[in-house]
Structure formats: structure tokens, C-alpha cells
Amino acid sequence: MTGPEFLEYSITVALGILTVALLLVIVRIVRGPTLPDRILALDMMVSVGIGYIAVIAIKTGYTLYLDIAISLGLVGFLATVAFARFVLQRWQIRENQTDAEATK
């Protein structure tokens, strides 16, 4: 097996693995019992998307795709932080409501 053949085989395998990972992430988003599970699955979806972009960049030889993957990583990180703050505020509101009910 020559180098280019091995690279093509590796790219095909990587895309297959990423597709399976994406399907599992979608299942977790749909079936996730709690909001943090869904948020974690969305963050994982961003990671899988970065993986797809990186594999396509290797396949095509276009280095511009790597800049797009870095940008997607930054946006995904910010979205995860925003969702985490949302969950924290939601938890604090519930905690305050239970404290208020306990003091009545």
C-alpha cells in the first residue's frame, strides 16, 4: 500500500467514525434526560464538526479550512460558556424559590 492510498483509506475511515459520532451525538441531544446533557452534546457536535472540517482540509489540501475550524472552535467555546451561565442562573433561581418556600 502506497502513501496516497493509505491516506485515502485513512480519510474514509475518519469520515466514517465522525459520522457515527455525529449520529450518537444527535441521539444524545434528542434523548438527553437533562439540559446539561444536551448542552454537552451540542459542544460535542461542534467538536465533531471541527473534525469533519479538519479531515476535509487534509483531503483537499486547502489550508483555509483550518482557519474555519479554529473559528468554529472559538464560537463553540463561547456558546458552551453562555449555556453554562444560563444553566447556573436557572439553578440559582430554583434554589432561591425553594429557600423562599421553606421560610414561609
Can you walk through the features of this model?
This protein has one domain: Orthogonal Bundle (Helix Hairpins). Helix 1 (3-31) runs antiparallel to helix 2. The mean pLDDT is 90. It is elongated and about 75 Å long. The chain has 3 helices and no strands. With 104 residues, the protein is an all-alpha fold.
Main features:
104 residues; 0% strand; mainly alpha
Structural class: mainly alpha
Terminus-to-terminus distance:
76 Å
CATH topology: Helix Hairpins
Percent helix, as a range, is: over 70%
**Strand content range:** under 5%
The biggest sheet amounts to: none
The number of helical segments is 3
CATH architecture: Orthogonal Bundle
H-E string: HHH
> Mean of the pLDDT scores?
90
State Rg: 20 Å
Quick overview:
With 104 residues, the chain is mostly helical. The protein has 3 helices and no strands.
Could you outline the blueprint of secondary structure elements for this entry?
Elements: H1 3-31, H2 35-60, H3 64-103
